Predict the 3D structure of the following.
Amino acid sequence: MQRQKIVIEGIVQGVGFRPFIYQLAERFALTGSVCNDSRGVTIEVEGAPDVLDRFVAAIQNEKPPLAVIQSLHAEAVPLKGCVGFSILQSAVDESRRAQISPDTFVCNDCLQELFDVENRRYRYPLINCTNCGPRYTIVTGIPYDRPLTTMADFPLCAACQSEYDDPASRRFHAQPNACPDCGPQLQLLDANGQPLKARDPLEETIRRLKNGQIVAIKGLGGYHLAVDATNPGAVLELRRRKQRDEKPFALMARSLEVAQRLALIGDDEARLLQGVERPIVLLQKRADHNLAENVAPDNRCFGVMLPYTPLHYLLLQDEFEVLVMTSANLSDEPIAFEDHEACRRLNKVADAFLVHNRRIQTRTDDSIARVMADRPLLLRRSRGFVPRAIALPHEAPSILAVGAELKNTLCLTRGDRAFLSQHVGDLKNLEVYQSFKQTIAHLQSILEVQPEKIAHDLHPDYYSTRYALEESGLEPVAVQHHHAHLASCLAEHGVEGPAIGIIFDGIGYGDDGHIWGGEFLVGDLGDYERVGHFRYQPMPGGDLATQEPWRMALSYLFSAYGEIPEVVNSFEGISDNELRLVGQATLKGINAPLTSSCGRLFDAVAALLGLRQKVSFEGQAAMQLEMIADPSQSKPYPYLLSDDEGRIIFDPLPMIAAILKDCSAGRPVAEIGGRFHVSLASMIEEVCTQIRQKTGLGQVVLSGGVFQNCLLAEMTLTCLARSGFKVLTHSLVPPNDGGLALGQAAVVAP
Ligand code: ZN
Ligand code: ZN
Ligand code: FE
């Protein structure tokens, strides 16, 4: 006989871990105890050594679906001769530092009960258990316990209480446990938030959706706006009311089989769709889908998710195979999540509201992902992933990193763990900025940590920077934007560097005061050197150029030819007068700051190809260029790499000239777009080879918003692999500014 003490860290509280251990100990006939403590779970067991080994193996192999084991440490301790196995009550203080689980999709056991006529929770839309349901979005404080969740409003009935108290039950200590007798209830409200007399709110919702109405539906982290995805009129009306002209709407498909009829789905995509996190996955449309074209106009992809709450399953069970389920907000506002606020803000958008009275404590948008080079790539890391921790290389005093300004997220560290927040949004919007401050306060309170320093972007005018400098009261540390992108990718891989950083981005403030975005860096978590960049190019109209790609096209044409060459007849929708004025201003350098941005080069090429001259959301032109590009192209256009006092300068002007020639010769845009992508990939290979010769570094990081572009990323991976580079790309953290805060935190707490 032997006694072992097993200490397990990770997400092991509030996920059914102790009853799991209890049942496992019974199975192996071991005696001892299990309890929660400050870092996770501690188990003491007695038994024969080989049985103990099998017990430990079973913990690893059979752990509950929501549990994440970050470390498991077993050591022999003196034998005590226990009788039986018990779950010890944890001292409140000790479980405070445990990690809270993200919200998760309703598990298969609960789904079975949901559709079982005999079950007491038959068709109960808020069914959950220790293996599934809301977590992060209902937590009001720590430790994670019912009184400190929004379920505190609902006293458990006797039946629910006995499940809650029974270690053998799937609902042992399931904090959000509820049933139709004691739990939250559905209600249907009219556009003004007044209760509608409906016998069955769900049936009435379905009836209204069938009639083409727009219904706001309460989800896990906020409201969705739902319409029938096969009804073009309803979709159009939603666009009009939401003031969203072109951005694709997310879809919810009843099942994987239904999704497969809409889009091409490989094994990796299927896994991602069906994962417990249930993100929106970008999938290539099938030609024969039966949805309204205006769901995702001018787009090769659909954003599809599978149902993740019991309510979603009930909605999609019979009448609908697919619903549009877009986040409930007006263009740049944050997603609505509080009931009264949803009704107030959306009363001109929604015809009705399907609500329930379980409050959402923390707004959390749907996550968005795609598959790149056979790996998942998160483009927006939010519901389902937050607040899962990312390991940093070292323990360090707590840092708060406040991210960039668009696609803002923030990051708080505790010990050697970084907690990246949910998607916050564009801080220029006042309500988003309020949400930013609430998110900081919430993260600090559930992690119970007071940061010592605040990391912010070098850009002096970002709202996040101003918060750091003027409001936080913490010691500020500025981190250059593209260094933060590099560090974010290193941190995600648990690597300190050094590495070659290929950081292709929209725009970020450079340490020379120019606008960077096509950067070749060499750096690690601590520091970086800018070893090269795209040639500086005037950005006519400053920020306006990001909304009007034709301005960058004009800028490149002036640099190449000193004028707009005759072959370019016009930019559609742009008057000759405007062209002339902006041209003159650019030549004189008036309101035309210099940029090395790669995103702006994409804009210029998209405009030259006539894809679009103005965009309604950031990155739209670049996205279209990726979509039309023929991936089979392999011949790069000419470009120039020169040396400027030891720095490598990439000059795309020869490329622009060649593209123009191809355009006027009537070559297909798909071919030109494809060759443009190949050119960048082969340029990256050449640049990395030069840097390797100088530094001996063979490890490359690809980061920055441009690397949301899978075609470019995959072509680059191919090129770098043939030259023998080891390449790190993002997967769990977005390459765009949504991942920036992690990098900032990693730089300040290396
Ligand atoms: Zn469940
Ligand atoms: Zn109950
Ligand atoms: Fe960026």
